[in-house]
Design a protein that fits this description.
By secondary structure, the chain is an alpha/beta fold. The protein contains 8 helices and 15 strands.
Length: 293
């Protein structure tokens, strides 16, 4: 039986340097506009070039090359550059890049995790190849978290009975983004609830099968939707297709602002879906799963 859960998504290829090609998933991209004169923002992060008024909205414009460690875009280069407007984590932000190459179709199952040799402080969330060239997918969430530090209150209101419920669950967190994993881990660590963590869907599926074989099944699965290899939709489909692990309560989350993601999550068999990280919402969703067990 073949899954029909994969969401059609391409890759926008662009250049931050002369040689290397980078990419973003097209679902995170709102539009592409030519460079325009920017208004300076006082006390802004050094990677923020200024702000532009685009369709009546004031949007911060970031030098993406400089933000990930490449030479900053010079004043002479800027008129020939392009702004990619993204919609991610409920933030509209523009990224100035040196060149747009093209949009290509992509089977996300063929996207591989970045090699471990890149270390933990990498902005790469996956790699693939196109026309014999290496394409590196950028971790937008990580970029945004460093340029716009999250000052939100991540405190959670939970009573002793509720904590006891979650402590009796076998929880697995899955996300390819280091920032998202840190947020998820922090929410559960603060309330003293144990969990396991995986960086991709393939590893998560294997962990779930192994736990089931040991008669200690994962009871609550929290997974990102957008991941290289086996995405959240596919992971949900696979879990529901295996009798020994099909009973897990599945919560999908996404940094995309589209309600389509939530609708599709429910269609493929997820029990709940979150469109932006909030510690309280995550814990509340897990408590729903614990009470259904």
């Amino acid at each position: 039986m073949q899954s029909t859960s994969s969401q059609s998504q391409g890759l926008l290829l662009f250049k931050l340097s002369t040689l290397q090609s980078f990419a973003l998933g097209t679902l995170k991209i709102q539009e592409i506009v030519p460079y325009q004169k920017l208004t300076q923002l006082p006390n802004a992060d050094s990677n923020i070039l200024g702000a532009a008024s685009i369709r009546g909205q004031t949007i911060s414009i970031i030098d993406m090359a400089a933000a990930v460690g490449y030479p900053p875009i010079s004043e002479e280069e800027k008129p020939n550059c392009v702004i990619i407007i993204t919609d991610c984590s409920r933030q509209h932000v523009g990224f100035l890049v040196r060149k747009i190459e093209r949009i290509i179709e992509c089977n996300w199952k063929n996207i591989e995790p970045p090699p471990s040799s890149l270390g933990h402080k990498t902005y790469i969330t996956g790699i693939t190849h196109f026309e014999k060239k290496l394409i590196q997918l950028l971790d937008i969430e990580l970029l945004l978290s460093q340029i716009f530090p999250d000052n939100d209150d991540h405190s959670v209101e939970i009573n002793g009975v509720q904590k006891g419920l979650l402590q009796n669950e076998h929880i697995l967190l899955v996300d390819d983004s280091a920032v998202a994993r840190k947020q998820l881990e922090g929410a559960l660590t603060r309330i003293d609830v144990p969990f396991k963590v995986c960086k991709n869907g393939n590893d998560a599926l294997q962990v779930m099968k192994e736990c089931a074989e040991k008669e200690d099944p994962i009871t609550i699965l929290v997974s990102d939707i957008e991941m290289p290899g086996l995405d959240g939709y596919e992971l949900t489909f696979e879990v529901r297709s295996v009798k020994e692990i099909a009973g897990a309560y599945i919560i999908l989350h996404t940094s995309l602002s589209s309600e389509m993601s939530v609708d599709r999550a429910q269609q493929v068999g997820a029990d709940d879906a979150l469109t932006k990280f909030a510690a309280q919402s995550l814990v509340d969703a897990m408590l729903k799963g614990a009470k259904k067990a």
